[in-house]
Structure of IS21 family transposase:
Amino acid sequence: MLDLHFEGMSQRTISASTGHSRNTVASVIQTAKSRGIQELNDTMTNSWLNDFLFPEKQAVEKGYYPVDWEKVHKELQKKNVTLKLLHYEYATEARLGKKVPYAYRTFTEKYGNYAKKYKTTMPIRRKPGEIMEVDWAGSTLTLQDRATGEKIPVYVFIATLPYSQYSYVEGFIDMKSPSWLTAHIHALEYFGGVPETMVPDNLKTGVTKPLRGEPILQEAYRELADYYHTVIVPSRVRKPKDKASVEGTVGYISRQVIAALRNYPFFHLEDLNHHIFEKLEEIYTTAFQKHPGSRREVFEEEEKPYLRSLPRTRYKLTEWKTAKVQPNYHIQVDRMYYSVLYEYVRE
């Protein structure tokens, strides 16, 4: 039925060719469409298709209590929920109904098959609202000085939520600490919430010493995390897989945004960022090619509810410096002198 359908034949013709009723043909085609099957390959045998398209029917025929795999998938997205727990609940429900449940091993295998073919992001490696990965893109954009014609590099900051692959992108004149912290604030406000963890690279603007056991964070960066009630866990040195989502997004943004804007003459940073946001809007509202919905829909429906609420007021940037106490028991900050206890001279 599906072979003929994908070749463009009408349901009436398929019904006549296969000897099945038009209702049966329509049911098979509609179910295949809802499960994301757009073409057949050699692994999709009749037996496999039967199990995949109608798992409840197969379970009943074999005497097992049927499983709602879509419900299992949605429950698995919640914090602290595991397949072990879901199987226990399923088995308990089956026994109360005097039905035979699948063994745990069979349960996990069948869910793996379901997730592999139906959800492109499965198996789940990230929970919604769990992590925000951040980094600077390797490629840059440019501003042009109207007076001299000089080209000024613009560094592109990217923050990505791995579950939904929803990202925030903004250009900055430099990669110094104030720009780094401001980018985080803008990203959290763009997402409308705060993830549990932020995963940066071991940049000097964020990490003072990338120690293996417990990296030492820049004080201002640590203060920002405390203010937003989140945790910073820097990726390990030379371990790009620790923040694979933002690494992948860097390449995607470089192709879809940076490359697309490379020949535009920008004279103001605000104008450049306005065009970046327009490109992002275009990317995230465009429907997926292989399954229904868009990145924005996945973010709004599945991830945003799990983000923590933003504080009522925006974090105010701070700057930390180290100063040596002079013989006159004063320290100098921005050409201003401040006295300290004389015991700290030369410290």
About this structure: Strands lie at 131-144, 151-161, 166-172, 197-199, 207-209, 216-217, 231-232, 330-333, 336-339. The chain has three domains: 2-118, 131-306, 319-347. DSSP finds 13 helices and nine strands in the chain.
